[in-house]
Amino acid sequence: MTVNQARRLLVAAAMITTAFAGGCSPQDTGDSQLGEAGSTPSGLRFVADRDVSQSQIAARVGGTVITVEDVQREAVSLGLTETPQALLPTDPVFRDTLSDLIDQRLLALEAVARNVQDEEEARLRLAAAEERILGNILVENAIASAVTEDSVEQVYEEQARLAPRTEEIRARHILVETREEADEVARLLAEGSDFGQLAAQVSRDLATRFSGGDLGYFTRTGILPGFAQVAFSTDEGAVSAPFETEYGWHVLEVIDRRLQPRESLEEVRPNIVRFLTLQGIDDLLEVLRERYPVTRVAGRAPSALRTTEPSAVTPDDIDTPEEAPGQDAP
After folding, report:
1. What 3-state DSSP class applies to 146?
2. For every one of its 330 residues, what pLDDT tens digit does the chain have, with 9 covering 90 and above?
3. What's the CATH fold of domain 167-259?
4. Which of 19, 65, 167, 312 is found 20 to 30 A from 330 (Cα to Cα)?
5. What is the three-class DSSP state of 77?
6. What are the domain boundaries of the chain?
7. Measured in whole angstroms, how far is the alpha carbon of residue 95 from the centre of its chain?
């Protein structure tokens, strides 16, 4: 057995419960080989009759079939593709996923032959899998309704309206070790020396030295406070007087001032989608908690943690063992 074969069997064994509960495509009508009379075990949807005449068959396993759509759906659920329709049978991902589903189907069919589905543990797992799958589909539907192009654009415009645009400047600097060196740099610049060439010759900032000392755009909070104070107090196009920071002595020139550009919709789309997804789930759960009363019996938090107002934890909130007869409390 190869490593890939072993991996596929492990995947199949791990997912066999899902196969029972909702899994892949059922058999095509009239081709059943299950049981002596071709009967379908009750409740096992993956072996139930279904018309697949409009589906493309990917594999036949016993009396059941696995369709191309089954493989594509499985690849999406495993995070192997985001475009299932583009996953073709010639794709290696398709072939590997189909192999996994075939192994999973073989294990499931043998489990049915051994009446595993009638065991108590199997029934419990099938019920749990069905509950989980139905809940996941409900969430997917809720998200599809909440996360639309219109809702994404609405959040984007609202955030853009509420978020203030911060001033930022673009500056370049020359860093030297002593005040005397900084004074000499300022003198040379005043006499007409090229800032970029002078930065390349004498600046000790190796990160910007060979780009003319250019620091790019930054906000007041995006750079050293002392540096920001001088930079934002200097007019556009002007050169500052020498000043000192923890890194040494600087002379800077302000190249440009502007308000921070607004991020494009595509840049922030993932964050908006994530926000709308979580909001959609929260809204759904809030409605369901009102519709279906919940009483938590086990696993309740200590009473002090359940209060809405902050309060100190008292000794009465802490469970302590009962004192043994004849013993005094410490």
Report:
1. helix
2. 443 444 444 444 444 444 444 444 444 433 444 444 344 454 456 666 667 888 899 999 988 899 999 999 999 989 999 899 999 999 999 999 999 999 999 999 999 999 999 999 999 999 999 999 999 999 999 999 999 999 999 999 998 888 888 999 999 999 999 999 999 999 999 999 999 999 999 999 999 999 999 999 999 999 999 999 999 999 999 999 999 999 999 999 999 999 999 889 999 999 999 999 999 999 999 999 999 999 988 877 776 665 554 444 444 444 444 443 344 433
3. Chitinase A; domain 3 (3.10.50)
4. 312
5. helix
6. 3-131, 167-259
7. 27
Q: Which one, of 74, 70, 63, lies nearest residue 27 by Cα? A: 63
- Contact indicator for 283, 139 with CB cutoff of 8 Å: no
> Which amino acid is present at 52?
V
Could you tell me how many residues make up the chain? 330
Give counts: helices (H), strands (E), the chain: 11, 6
The helix (H) or strand (E) run that includes residue 111 is helix 92-113
Neighbouring CB atoms inside 10 A of 314's CB total: 9
Place of tokens 């300022």: 186
H-helix segments, 147-264? 149-162, 179-190, 195-202, 225-231
Tokens of 238: 């002007």
pTM: 0.56
Q: Which is nearest to 155 in space by CA: 281, 286, 279?
A: 279
